[in-house]
Amino acid sequence: MNDAPACRACGFHPCAPVLDLGCQPLANNLLRPEDLGQPEPRFPLRLFVCPACWLLQIGDLVPPAKLFCDYLYFSSFSDAMLAHARRAAEQHRREFRLGPQSLVVEIASNDGYLLRNFKDWGIPCLGIEPAANIARVSRELGIETLVEFFGRKLAERLRESGRSADLILGNNVFAHAPDTNDFVAGLSLALKPDGAVVLEFPYGGDFIEKTEFDTAYHEHVFYFTLTPLLPLFQKHGLEIFQVEMLPIHGGSLRVYAGHRGKHPVRPSVAALLTDEERRGITRLEYYETFTRRVGDVKDALLRLLDDLKQQGCHLAAYGASAKGSTLLNYCGIGAERLEFVADRSPHKQGRLTPGTHLPIVGPEELARRRPDYTLLLTWNFNEEILAQQQAYRQAGGKFIIPIPEVRVV
Ligand code: ZN
């Protein structure tokens, strides 16, 4: 990889190559049957780490207009996500003493799954959501929603119109904003002097240590640990004052930030920083062992599927997710091995998976068609899905969980 990019946070050049996942279609671009004759764009998907600030990042960007025009991820289709959102909203309301005089801004507010809690409590809120089809759903719930990307420009406009935020929330968006300096500068501009920013994103340490390579896709630009975030926030006048580890999405990090000196810095920040150093996040070998484990998962999965196929088993998959697309395309698993993909979202049913073109059907098809084995592509929801699929499992159906190591349950 002699075209290694410069770090998107600190500008260091060149970043060190970590993993090449090949040329991949856009992971959220589910096809309609009539699209099958059309060319399907593919883009390189490669991971690099910055040896100066240790930010793990993808090397090749796709223009955002291609990514967001018809986005199909509706947060409200997962019970676990809704419960998590409700708990987080409760916690923030108490901690930051929010009331009718406050303003809560959520970046990438999706279908309003989180802000609707604040709205129910009479706390003014504003959603920012670049996907028009999803913003429409949250507006129907009565939540004011701007169809825009967040950054410095929008933050300036909010500030000029007197709408600075007491609380800015961003769940699973920070890692998707390619111009990370513009995003953090925007946070600083849009926040009241005593306000707080709370961001949640999949944790880069879990990504590496649990071999979650399939959570890499073109929109997911950064795989953040705390180490590179401290200098990035500092550059824009912000300070991270608290961190929490969360079990969702295979391990997520929640960071709290405010204007420098406005909030007491809790011991959790120094503790995680020390822990990251100890685990090897600031050494290249940490990333090299990850690369080897990814190859092992691919080999083990292909071996298992081919053995089962030879025994005459019927195979399917569950979860037409972005991570499913990355895994299937990287491993080269398509219709020759899997018969269909079941998914709970009616917006996905009737479509085909990117690159591999597997038909997407409703989850009831597992019990009806009874594949012998089902590859669980949304392993981050595995407890929820295994519970929902009891009928299939009691009838003898088995699930293959690919990450962090291939196993059958
Ligand atoms: Zn850097």
Radius of gyration: 21 Å
CATH architecture of the largest domain: 3-Layer(aba) Sandwich
Q: Which small-molecule species are bound to the chains here?
A: zinc ion
Oligomer: single chain
The tally of strands reads: 17
Tell me roughly what share of residues is in helical segments.
Answer: 25-40%
Name the CATH homologous superfamily of the largest domain: Vaccinia Virus protein VP39
**What is the first-to-last residue Cα distance?**
38 Å
The helix tally amounts to 14
Quickly count the domains: 2
Give the low-confidence spans.
none
CATH topology annotation of the largest domain: Rossmann fold
Mean pLDDT comes to: 94
Adjacency order of strands in the biggest sheet? 6-5-4-7-8-11-10
Main structural class = alpha/beta
> What is the CATH class name of the largest domain?
Alpha Beta
* Anisotropy-based shape: globular
Main beta sheet, described?
A: 7 strands, mixed
Strand content: 15-25%
